[in-house]
């Protein structure tokens, strides 16, 4: 009788799951397992918003499996050790999983494969979270793309994969003697105290979000995606794609039936950005440690710790930046336009390294994902692939006026500015009396001056000279 273990990581669903379906189809007894990995739980890059989302998605997964007669086994410890132990206990003839492309995951999976091999248990991994992985989309010269537009054209020319059926009922139950940990009742049991709002989690929530966006959001996405105060302007599927509570195949399969012309195409382009950065990380893993373009590792960032704290807490005196950061701290999520504004502000106005911002985001974000986060930060800093050139510098005031013209987003998150009229809300310093009364800070830097310093800093790094302040 064949027993196969399916190891869940970033694929927390029972529908459209490649490795899970293979394991179910090819076994008599399916053993679905999730392993709490302390190396991840204790990493400074992991924060409460993501742990809470993960925990609630696991609760939903466990229920979904139960409704099909399956039982989720939960273990805690070093994955290679835990999988060898479980494989021996259930006398497994294989361990299946879906591939993860982050450097830590690649190292971990290599170790798992070796340990299982030594124990005589085959380990099989499957492509699942992307349409195209690793070196599947290459330039004419057989090199990975480093420029988005030609990559997206090549990506679009590939046949689109179709969703994989949901797994069926358990054929034979896992013996009751095989023990499982209970899921913790609260993220604090895992060392993460949550103070943020809880983001809807689990496979059902993902399906609901997708459905709602296809009905209300995607047709107007072309313009709506830039307005942070618009609730259905973007899909808010990023945490679900991050943890695999929905799969890209399911999403793409629903697009052809949706009327929405340019909106649909633009949204699909965003989904391709996700894959672009995943393949950048897989093919150029050095980006996890430094600039995609190494000459920019020479940049002499000169911003202070005090300025960094003002940015983190939303007290820079630039309303759109502060509103965005306070929203991130309170909810674990931030709109894409705002991510671009605050990352550009940290690097180009405060002259603080993109890597400090990247780490702060990773800890706060419910959708924190090394590939997308690193790609986004390097894009804004101008150190990345086909990045915005370093001399493209957003003006935080005109960005606020353009994308939050009525000031409603600012007023929602910066109560000090609640009574300021729309024509002043993005430049409150023009009314010093108001600033004094509200307690809202004056701008901590002068944008025009910092812009010049930033350009000098980049020029110095590009010419290989030190200095630039
Ligand atoms: C500095 C910075 C940091 C970022 N960090 C992350 C991160 O940690 N995790 C993350 O998922 N995204 C990150 N992004 C990309 C983007 O901001 C989010 O994916 C998006 O805001 C999520 O909202 P949504 O699901 O409503 O997106 P939608 O606009 O509905 O887009 C659909 C999906 O496409 C993908 N996507 C959209 N834009 C991008 C993009 N620019 N790069 C990669 N994928 C994209 C996401 O999976 C998203 O869920 C970052 C962007 C910047 C500028």
Q: Helices, strands, pairings?
A:
Elements (H helix, E strand, L loop, with lengths): L2 E6 L9 H8 L3 E8 L1 H4 L6 H20 L5 E4 L2 H12 L3 E5 L4 H16 L4 E4 L21 H9 L46 H14 L4 H4 L13 H6 L4 H7 L6 H23 L21 H9 L5 H13 L4 H14 L4 H11 L5 H12 L14 H8 L4 H6 L18 H7 L8 H16 L7
Parallel strand pairs: 1-2, 1-4, 2-3, 4-5
Helix pairs in contact: 4-5, 6-11, 11-16, 13-14, 14-16, 15-16
The chain binds flavin-adenine dinucleotide (FAD).
Could you characterize what this model shows?
This protein is mainly alpha-helical and 469 residues long. The chain has three domains: 3-128, Rossmann fold, CATH 3.40.50.620; 130-163 and 203-283, Serine Threonine Protein Phosphatase 5, Tetratricopeptide repeat; 294-462, DNA Cyclobutane Dipyrimidine Photolyase, subunit A, domain 3 (Orthogonal Bundle). It is built from 20 helices and five strands. A five-stranded parallel beta sheet has the order 3-2-1-4-5, with helices on both faces. Helix 5 (103-118) links the parallel strand 4 (94-98) and strand 5. Helix 4 runs parallel beside helix 5 (103-118) and helix 14 (336-349) crosses helix 16. It starts with a strand and ends in a 7-residue tail after the last helix. The model has no long low-confidence stretch (mean pLDDT 94). The structure holds flavin-adenine dinucleotide.
Distance between the termini: 70 Å
- Shape call: globular
**Secondary structural class:** mainly alpha
Low-confidence stretches: none
Helix content: 40-55%
Order of helices and strands: EHEHHEHEHEHHHHHHHHHHHHHHH
CATH-defined architecture of the largest domain: Orthogonal Bundle
CATH top level label of the largest domain? Mainly Alpha
Average pLDDT number: 94
Kindly report the spatial arrangement of strands forming the biggest sheet: 3-2-1-4-5
Q: Summarize the biggest pleated sheet.
A: 5 strands, parallel
Bound molecule types? flavin-adenine dinucleotide
Total number of helices: 20
CATH superfamily of the largest domain: DNA Cyclobutane Dipyrimidine Photolyase, subunit A, domain 3
CATH topology descriptor of the largest domain: DNA Cyclobutane Dipyrimidine Photolyase, subunit A, domain 3
* Proportion of residues in β-strands: 5-15%
Total strands = 5
Count of domains: 3
Question: What is the gyration radius calculated from CA atoms?
Answer: 24 Å
């Amino acid at each position: 009788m064949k027993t196969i273990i399916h190891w869940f990581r970033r694929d927390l669903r029972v529908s459209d799951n490649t490795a899970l379906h293979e394991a179910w189809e090819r076994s008599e007894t399916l053993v679905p397992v999730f392993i709490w990995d302390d190396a991840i739980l204790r990493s400074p890059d992991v924060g409460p918003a993501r742990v809470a989302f993960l925990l609630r998605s696991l609760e939903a997964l466990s229920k979904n499996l139960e409704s099909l007669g399956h039982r989720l086994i939960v273990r805690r410890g070093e994955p290679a050790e835990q999988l060898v132990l479980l494989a021996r206990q259930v006398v497994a003839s294989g361990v299946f999983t879906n591939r993860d492309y982050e450097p830590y995951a690649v190292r971990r999976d290599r170790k798992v494969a070796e340990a299982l091999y030594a124990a005589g248990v085959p380990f099989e991994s499957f492509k699942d979270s992307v349409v195209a992985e690793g070196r599947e989309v290459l330039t004419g010269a057989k090199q990975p793309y480093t420029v988005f537009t030609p990559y997206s054209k090549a990506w679009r020319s590939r046949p689109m994969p179709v969703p994989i059926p949901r797994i069926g009922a358990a054929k034979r139950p896992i013996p009751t003697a095989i023990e499982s940990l209970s899921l913790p009742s609260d993220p604090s049991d895992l060392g993460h105290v949550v103070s943020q709002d809880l983001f809807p989690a689990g496979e059902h929530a993902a399906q609901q979000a997708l459905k709602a966006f296809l009905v209300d959001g995607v047709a107007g996405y072309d313009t709506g995606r830039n307005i942070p105060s618009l609730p259905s302007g973007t899909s808010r599927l990023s945490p679900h794609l991050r943890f695999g509570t929905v799969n890209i195949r399911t999403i793409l399969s629903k697009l052809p039936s949706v009327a929405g012309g340019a909106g649909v195409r633009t949204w699909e382009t965003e989904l391709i950005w996700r894959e672009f950065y995943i393949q950048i990380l897989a093919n150029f893993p050095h980006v996890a440690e430094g600039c995609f373009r190494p000459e920019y590792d020479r940049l002499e960032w000169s911003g202070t710790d005090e300025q960094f704290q003002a940015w983190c807490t939303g007290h820079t005196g630039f309303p759109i930046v502060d509103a965005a950061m306070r929203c991130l701290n309170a909810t674990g999520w931030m709109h894409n336009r705002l991510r671009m504004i605050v990352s550009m502000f940290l690097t180009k106005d405060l002259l603080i390294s993109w890597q400090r911002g990247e780490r702060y985001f990773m800890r706060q974000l419910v959708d924190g994902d090394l590939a997308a986060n690193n790609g986004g930060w390097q894009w804004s800093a101008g150190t990345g692939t086909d990045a915005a050139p370093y001399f493209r510098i957003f003006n935080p005031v005109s960005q606020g006026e353009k994308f939050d013209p009525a000031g409603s987003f600012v007023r929602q998150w910066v109560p000090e500015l609640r009574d300021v009229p729309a024509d002043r809300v993005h430049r409150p310093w023009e009314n010093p009396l108001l600033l004094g009364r509200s307690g809202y800070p004056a701008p901590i830097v002068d944008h025009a001056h910092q812009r010049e310093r930033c350009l000098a800093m980049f020029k110095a790094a590009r010419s290989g000279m030190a200095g630039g302040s």
